[in-house]
Structure formats: C-alpha cells, structure tokens
C-alpha cells in the first residue's frame, strides 16, 4: 500500500518537470544576494501531492491572495 503522506518518485519527477522553467527564471534574493536558496512560489490552493512537494522544500506555497517571484529558504522571505 502506498503511503499517502509521502510523495512518489513519479509524481516528484512530474513536478520537477513542470517547475523547471520557473526554476531557471528565478530572481536573486535581495537580502543574501544569492539565488542558491531561492525556490519557485506556487499561488492558489495546492493539491495534496503539491503540498507534499512543497514540504520537501522544492516550492513554496504563497496562498491565494499574493503573487511572488520566489521564496528564499535561507532568509525565509518572499521575493
Ligand atoms: Zn536570501
């Protein structure tokens, strides 16, 4: 039986593929002047799988009201 709280490798690959373009166009963090810890933000209500993907630190969920270019994991701030 599949664990419902663990993202499957297959689904992760799909997400990696769909966020590849967004990842390559991420801005530099204005605080630490680096792009190393910047990940894409996802706006709107996430699916269960997307939430798991976000929990792994691949993307940052930004909620429904605001739109951002990215999230810096190091500074813990939206860009
Ligand atoms: Zn930063």
Overall average pLDDT? 93
Structural class: alpha+beta
Number of H- or I-type helical stretches: 3
Strand residue content: 5-15%
Overall helicity = 25-40%
List the bound ligands: zinc ion
Computed Rg: 13 Å
Taken in chain order, the helices and strands follow as: HHEEHEEE
Q: How are the strands of the biggest sheet laid out side by side?
A: 1-4-5
Distance between the termini: 40 Å
Summed up, the domain count is 1
Q: Number of DSSP strands?
A: 5
Give unreliable regions as ranges.
none
Main sheet properties: 3 strands, antiparallel
The outline comes out as globular
Structural features, described:
The radius of gyration is 13 Å and the shape is globular. The relative contact order is 0.23. Helix content is 29%, strand content 13%. The protein has one domain (9-78). It is an alpha+beta fold and 79 residues long. The site of zinc ion has 7 residues, from loops. Zinc ion (ZN) binds at residues 29, 31-32, 37, 72, 74-75.
Could you give a quick summary of the protein structure above?
This protein is α+β, with helices and mostly antiparallel strands. Helix content is 29%, strand content 13%. It has helices at 9-18, 20-24, 48-55; strands spanning 38-39, 41-42, 60-61, 71-72, 77-78.
Tag the structure with descriptive keywords.
3-stranded antiparallel β-sheet; globular; binds zinc ion; 3 helices; alpha+beta; 79 residues; two-stranded parallel ribbon
